[in-house]
């Protein structure tokens, strides 16, 4: 592993370590010292690359939001008809809720910060806008807004429920939300 300024991936390792720690211990369990140890970088690298823990957290969560938007893009990209888009949304919900809980935990930790701190709320607004933009390629804006909220809610419910709704129920709900009046 390269050291000092010759290590071009140090900043990325710090951000990845931050997300790993948040997933394991929550935001409250994160510190400069723990992040540096997890990233295997000198503690001084934290202040060299970031002005403080808030900047580290905000950038790490920005990366997480970018990741989830990429998942949205991957599922919606090939849909060319409304029915294909509906099926893509159904697949997306089941992929997000069936996946390991890391993304769900990170998202909930971000929402907790957003409830109290404007920079994280602004990040969430940008993330929601990007998700809706992808959905608006297939559905009218009001439908995309409802569908985005539904994706979020059902993903959470499916992930936490002992008997989660099956694919048929999801498909039917997506059809009802996206059907023209």
From TrEMBL:
Q: Which residues form the HTH tetR-type domain?
A: 8-68
Q: Give the Gene Ontology MF terms in alphabetical order.
A: DNA binding
What SUPFAM superfamilies has UniProt attached to this entry?
Homeodomain-like (SSF46689), Tetracyclin repressor-like, C-terminal domain (SSF48498)
Task: Name the keywords, alphabetized.
Answer: DNA-binding, Transcription, Transcription regulation
Give the DNA-binding residue ranges: 31-50
Query: Any idea what this protein is called?
Result: TetR family transcriptional regulator
Which organism is the protein's source?
Streptomyces toyocaensis
Organism taxonomic ancestry: Bacteria, Bacillati, Actinomycetota, Actinomycetes, Kitasatosporales
């Amino acid at each position: 592993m390269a050291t000092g300024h010759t290590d071009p991936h140090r900043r990325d390792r710090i951000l990845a370590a931050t997300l790993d720690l948040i997933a394991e211990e929550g935001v409250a369990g994160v510190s400069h010292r723990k992040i540096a140890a997890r990233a295997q970088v000198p503690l001084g690298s934290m202040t060299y690359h970031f002005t403080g823990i808030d900047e580290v957290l905000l950038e790490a969560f920005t990366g997480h939001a970018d990741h989830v938007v990429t998942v949205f893009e991957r599922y919606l990209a090939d849909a060319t008809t409304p029915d294909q888009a509906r099926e893509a949304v159904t697949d997306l919900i089941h992929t997000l809720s069936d996946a390991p809980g890391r993304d769900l935990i990170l998202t909930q930790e971000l929402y907790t910060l957003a409830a109290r701190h404007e920079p994280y709320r602004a990040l969430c607004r940008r993330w929601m806008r990007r998700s809706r933009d992808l959905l608006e390629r297939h559905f009218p804006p009001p439908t995309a807004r409802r569908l985005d909220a539904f994706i979020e809610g059902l993903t959470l419910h499916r992930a936490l429920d002992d008997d989660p709704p099956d694919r048929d129920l999801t498909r039917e709900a997506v059809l009802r939300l996206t059907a023209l009046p």
